[in-house]
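Purpose: get a first structural picture of the assembly so the mutagenesis plan has something to point at.
Setup: four entries, given in the order below. No constraints added.
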Amino acid sequence: MTEQHITFRPRPDQFAFTFGGAEPVLRVRPGSVLTLWSEDAYCGRIGSAQDLASAALNPGELNPQTGPFWIEGAEPGDVLAVHLVDLTPARSWGASALIPFFGGLTSTPQDAGLQAPLDERTYIYEYDSTRHTVQFSAQAGDFTVALPADPMLGTVGVAPAQREVRTSLVPDYFGGNMDTPEMRAGSTVYLRVNVEGALFSLGDGHYRQGEGESCGTAVEGALNVTVIVDLIKGGEAADAPAWPRLENDTHVMTIGSGRPLEGAWKASQVEMVGWLSRLHGLDLLDAYQLLSQISEVPLANVVDTNFSCLTKVDKRLLPSAPVFDGIHADLARRAAALGTISY
Amino acid sequence: MTEQHITFRPRPDQFAFTFGGAEPVLRVRPGSVLTLWSEDAYCGRIGSAQDLASAALNPGELNPQTGPFWIEGAEPGDVLAVHLVDLTPARSWGASALIPFFGGLTSTPQDAGLQAPLDERTYIYEYDSTRHTVQFSAQAGDFTVALPADPMLGTVGVAPAQREVRTSLVPDYFGGNMDTPEMRAGSTVYLRVNVEGALFSLGDGHYRQGEGESCGTAVEGALNVTVIVDLIKGGEAADAPAWPRLENDTHVMTIGSGRPLEGAWKASQVEMVGWLSRLHGLDLLDAYQLLSQISEVPLANVVDTNFSCLTKVDKRLLPSAPVFDGIHADLARRAAALGTISY
Amino acid sequence: MTEQHITFRPRPDQFAFTFGGAEPVLRVRPGSVLTLWSEDAYCGRIGSAQDLASAALNPGELNPQTGPFWIEGAEPGDVLAVHLVDLTPARSWGASALIPFFGGLTSTPQDAGLQAPLDERTYIYEYDSTRHTVQFSAQAGDFTVALPADPMLGTVGVAPAQREVRTSLVPDYFGGNMDTPEMRAGSTVYLRVNVEGALFSLGDGHYRQGEGESCGTAVEGALNVTVIVDLIKGGEAADAPAWPRLENDTHVMTIGSGRPLEGAWKASQVEMVGWLSRLHGLDLLDAYQLLSQISEVPLANVVDTNFSCLTKVDKRLLPSAPVFDGIHADLARRAAALGTISY
Amino acid sequence: MTEQHITFRPRPDQFAFTFGGAEPVLRVRPGSVLTLWSEDAYCGRIGSAQDLASAALNPGELNPQTGPFWIEGAEPGDVLAVHLVDLTPARSWGASALIPFFGGLTSTPQDAGLQAPLDERTYIYEYDSTRHTVQFSAQAGDFTVALPADPMLGTVGVAPAQREVRTSLVPDYFGGNMDTPEMRAGSTVYLRVNVEGALFSLGDGHYRQGEGESCGTAVEGALNVTVIVDLIKGGEAADAPAWPRLENDTHVMTIGSGRPLEGAWKASQVEMVGWLSRLHGLDLLDAYQLLSQISEVPLANVVDTNFSCLTKVDKRLLPSAPVFDGIHADLARRAAALGTISY
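Result (structure tokens, whole complex):
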């Protein structure tokens, strides 16, 4: 089976707004390179600081997904491996919005109250592609600062199980809107396949995001995206993840999502205990003990319908233990071989 | 007023087990250097893998505190600044214990259930002072690995307000058992003074700890500790912290504690929003927006009576803005001038 | 438009397992009486104490729904009013199961840990239709007790908004698996319509349930169900509920769902503050104050994917204030006029 | 040992504001009748609707406690039984205050945010001792309603263990500020003794309170209080409660406190599972199953530093099983024999 290099830029009517429930836009073979375009979380409706969220946004059209892609041969229990080859800002600016009753330091529909909402504001961050920075400018003063750009995808996921269809605003066991800065170029995401064809999609590009995504929005921006999509069949995948996993050159990571936040943490930890146990031949209590001393735990978001938390382990601390036969290194090598991607 | 260099090693009957409520062991002048010895969290009752927690430990004598120290002139509203000069393992081994109904991946008295407890185990980690490592050995197999030592204090605190006395197992606004790896040599801790004399103490040394302290215990060990204690008087301290703050050469940090975990996160975030606002002349919404893009959020512990979470900001991303007139740099300079500490 | 009395007993292949996403089984006119049969939560797979959950159940076929019914003329923003006329046990026994990693006093996938699961057990409760009791018999001793039967529906709901499809195990703003004993005959449920046709369904009959549904299962049993379904059009429904509401002869109630449990409580409270405000012409703070002194707050479940909590107000404490033009009294009158229902 | 009838009305300088840490005001023998006066939660600082909380209150003097009383012979592990004989409003009005950043439907220091506080308001409720009602009057309109008075104590507790001293605002395993309407005349409270002498106190009278105490304050008012205090010695008390228990003529109840709210619920449930198991000779899983079908679960408060939740079981559903040798019935008989209490 020949691997493909597919380029796909969705038409405005081709976005999906759910995981599950949307017709696939393309069928792709495992091992294919996909060069994609992803619209920003606002569906392109915010273009200036005057575009305040409550007036500009369509609540039914947030986090537009590029996809879903039907992965040939994918069946429930398999593992989808998506290597992020390149994420490049597709516009010269990104935008972050303070949205009424959305974010981490305000009441929300999930954590309701009677206080008045915070004021709305929209911040435009100019993206300097030469210096690779995004520029923050205060609205109540002259303060400005150029911050390093660090492009990432807020949303990567597959269709859920149990006949469910979930909005692209939700992070859960199927991936989705996890909003972690670790979802950057160079990482490989592992997702359990829940339905035939997997129905993989991505979106919600961020030019930069802090851990926790405090106000609810990052420096949101359209992205040019190149990924390699591969498939680990069930035969090999007795270790199919219950929660999304990430691997880069230095770390293995698990991402739990839930509420309250300790639920997200526990999910990521139990997933990592099992993973360490398997990789290094430890029993669960030994793996628990070891993890207690080496865990890195950055939050991803404390603002979405579910919160997300990472557990990271630095591979360099431990004996070498290839994950899924070393697929990350293989994909990274293939990515390098692609050279510079032009969009 | 001459600064002092005081050496204090508590007798077994001199430990405190509370924040507040204990008589001061010494009165010290602001600016003093303290060279101290801290016993491990087990009060020295665990010495081998055969010492299982439920038999070996005295629940009323955990996290013994070295102190409290009465800081001359400290009054409510002042800020205590404690610079951690040096933390050196005082024994050739540390110990981590799996304790029934304690830890992050089990039911606990605060999160009760009907399941049987996990098995008890005690792990002894040999400390290699030359390579500066601690050695993990699995109990159910041959796996071993040497991990870099990274000594830290689990517990640093002052007496609480409102006449309260809290056990040294609790982290809260007065500091206490925050259990963050950031409490390492080179850091300056800022704590609001709640009672006259501040009544500062420290303990619960860890030779190494993962973020979250998953199983409830780090590589616990006795430490030789050198700190400089200083005082920022109320006049200068209109910005007295509501929650503990940390500063090192690269970051400013706030530590929130509470339950559920999002409460700890929110506390650390609101504290940092206020701090950024003050340091950089931003209004609260601008500070909230900026923090959303630059926050680093590692968990501290998800196992204590309150959970603890950090919000970190990399000072190098922002314009220079000295904290409390640059006291951290001053203290770091004084620490360097002390040369190598011998115990 | 003539009102209908429709009788519908689903074939085994006609059950739905989701809110949203399933084809309607019937189209019914507002005002219609529906006489239905609902299978138990286990899809009939548990018939004796030897049928343990992990072997007997199909995780993809739980909480089978009778429906969905397309309500003629229902549009988003309308309010569906469902009056529960009669709930009669359809079998001579119900069953409650202790299911591994499910329930309130064990770790669960949403609140994960490393402890071993509780033992599985299945309890058969004989239903005595003359005395109207269900019989509990201990498995580890001779203790037996006959408890009053109090039939209720665990699950009543409509299709969610935002293109979502949710399993019938979830309670949320669209109703669903709320698991409250208040969902008994004599109550009227109000649900906001989210999609054209509303797509209303019900199931998960309980012959009796404690508040909280501690172990995760009630005395689950097939039910004969008679309801009247009515529609309040948007014109009248400027007060369309954000969360499910209930009314019976003595109380008005709101049901919030979420995690942590305080989120469910807050949702029910804010909904009731708004409702009291509207019914009695109070501003929000006056309604908040009044509610603080008259609220009754029984938990519904602390075991489902979302937890559910009620806020109840005794109508007899307050001046008369008809809800939706007194539709509950009208429906109760119509129900009485139906006389004894025979199945 | 002769039983005493002691009358005690604290002088303004005699109130305690903590559990633990305060000197006993009296030593009393087990079996004594205490006729007491308790000041309101505001320490009497609110007397009219013009007294807004932020100006009127002293944050260090809230929930003044009448006591503590040293109970002769009480030792750790014993059980203190306090029978509430009579609670009579001591003033002709009570007051409820909306306090900035306090209450269930606003951000708080424990659940921080950036929104502006709700407006402050103070409501005076006239108490009509003839009709036994308290009168609510809206501030933004003419709405008034007379609500039945239902006097209760917000705060009943003993000194905590582990050398701790806690403010009288906190509910926990030692009782304290549980804020449940079930703490009314006719109830017997069981509290584990943690320190010699028990150091029992009470306060925070409410003329009426809704479940949850939504806005954070009930109809707060000074009370005349008569209780009988008795002691169950450790020998008899192998079943010493881990959490406060209540008994009245119809129900046994347990009160859990913690955060998040499900932690409070779990504590109350596990306590009741153990209690049912012991009373009726059930194993824990049988007790769990039975409780699942008979639990009543009203919330107590969702506003204090810890939240509180009750688990109630209707004794009339189960075979007779006297608690602590029927001490509640004995105390109720003694209370009846006291006749009408005059203050």
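Chain B touches chain D through 32 residues (CB under 8 Å).
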